[in-house]
Amino acid sequence: MEPVCFLDAVMTGLAPDGGLLLPEKLPNIGNKLEAWRDLSYQELAFEVMRLFTTDMPEADLKHLIEKSYSTFRDEAVTPVVPVGDLHILELWHGPTLAFKDVALQFLGNLFEYILEKRGGELNILGATSGDTGSAAIYGVHGKENIKIFIMHPEGRTSPIQEKQMTSVLDENVFNLAVDGTFDDCQHLMKSIFADVAFKHEHSLGSVNSVNWARVLAQTVYYFYSFFRVQERTGANRVQFSVPTGNFGDIMAGYLAAQMGLPIKKLILATNENNILSRFFATGEYSMGSVVPTLSPSMDIQVASNFERYLYFRTGKDTEKLSELMAGFSENGALTMAGSDDLFAAGEGNTPETLATIKKYADEFGYILDPHTAVGIAVAERFKTLETPTICLATAHPAKFTDAIEQAIGATAHHPELDKLNNAETRCDSIANDETAIRDYLVSKRRKTNTFDPSS
Questions:
Q1: Average pLDDT, whole number, for the chain?
Q2: Active site includes 444?
Q3: Which member of 129, 220, 380, 411 lies 3.0 to 4.6 Å from 182 by CB, making a disulfide possible if both were Cys?
């Protein structure tokens, strides 16, 4: 396909052929690290993003960044907390207490900005395993000329995750409980986006991590946490442990490394749904059955962002990548020769997750959510004295009270979540069927002019 500018990439989400978008080249920022060291989070976000947002005025970008992160409860936006001999990057200080807010507060404001400039409407279709849905809804609820349709697997998110989504009653918000798994939801979304005519006719856009702007926004906190840990330890390299199911969060770290951030290792942590950790151990990427766990946002067997990583592993050979993805679509498996020394990988199962939550509560008085506990359980296998380890904390523990109670015999609370206990909700159950999703979207969409990404 022909290259597109940044703003068009944001609005189109997936490429017309159903593939994922990436910059034609990545900037080398090695010579900028010293100048960026003492910047605030907002200032650093501006410096990183301006390298890619070349089709919008810098003053507009700066305003959007300031607006987006004004909603966070900590002035550092993503503070780094020393706990034992690890450094925990707290990514949950946004409106929905999950790391997805870091990207989706920005993306929601960016959508609104583009529509104000270009006119038209946007109908967002998304799939969530838990936190993306509420973060996306909080990013766009009540905004003019935007409707959002979020599919989640019925009964497979935590009760609080579901309540966060379904208690938002704005007229532009639609929650769909799909009779299936998150992988089913993600497949439905990608299949609908692959119908280019339908996508354009109904002005569809994406908030999932298939949207390039989300991955870009997430690269910022890798730089920010590196500087904070360097201040604390004097280290010139760090390693990151990332709990991941869809490969989006760790893909942001991979891109930061490609741009020149001195990362020794990216430690990829999965739960029992271990398709990604198995790949980095064996070179085989093969689907299994989804196993429900205490870390439901990672209960995924098809990682949508993995395709971006394979682009680099194939030497940016798009034909070879297309062959690999076609084979995976047909057979549910692909293999890749060789290895990537940047990655280490492991699985943190349910007993290890519970034990890690209890250990950190008992020894440090620090409560981990189960996803973060998976990341820390795996990080402890790879931590070294020479290289500081930064562990991404992806959600506030109060979003997963059942897991916390199992681990330590007490519940976790947050006042914003406690408010949801008696909140009114609205959600429609729907079949795991593409036609049903299309019909629902068409019946609810806004009857205005459609957005043409080529305009």
A1: 94
A2: no
A3: 129
Residue 122: CA count within 13 A, CB half-sphere: 31
End-to-end CA distance of the chain: 16
> What residue spans define the domains of the chain?
80-97+218-416
Q: Are 90 and 394 in contact (CB under 8 A)?
A: no
Q: Which of 25, 62, 67, 100 is catalytic?
A: 100
Interior CA angle at 186 toward 156 and 442, to 5°? 105
Instruction: Tell me the β-bridge partners of 263.
Output: 238
Per-residue pLDDT tens for 284-336? 999 999 999 999 889 999 998 999 999 999 999 999 999 999 999 999 999 99
Token output for 147: 């409707």
SS (H, E, C) 330-374: HHCEEECCCCCCCEEEEECCHHHHHHHHHHHHHHHCCCCCHHHHH
Residue with tokens 């769909």: 176
Contact 275, 288 (CB under 8 A): yes
What's the Cα-to-Cα distance from 253 to each of 215, 260, 262, rounded to whole Å? 9, 11, 11
| 355-380 confidence digits (pLDDT tens) | 999 999 999 999 999 999 999 999 99
Q: Residue 107, exposed/middle/buried by CB under 10 A (0-12, 13-18, 19+)?
A: buried
Q: List residues bridging with 393 in a β-sheet.
A: 90
| pLDDT band at residue 129 under the 50/70/90 scheme | confident
Cα separation, 49 vs 220, whole angstroms: 8
Looking at domain 80-97+218-416, its CATH class is alpha beta
Does an H or E element contain 216, and which?
helix 212-233
Give CA angle at 77 (72, 80), nearest 5°.
140
What would the mean pLDDT of 219-234 be, rounded to a whole number?
Answer: 98
Residue 44 to residue 47: CA distance in whole angstroms = 5
pLDDT at 450 (0 to 100): 41
In the block, which residue shows the tokens 């098809």? Answer: 302
Enter the tokens of residue 422: 């008696």
CB-based contacts of 294: which residues, under 8 Å, 6+ apart? 271, 350, 353, 354, 370, 400, 402, 403, 406
Q: What is the pTM of this model?
A: 0.92
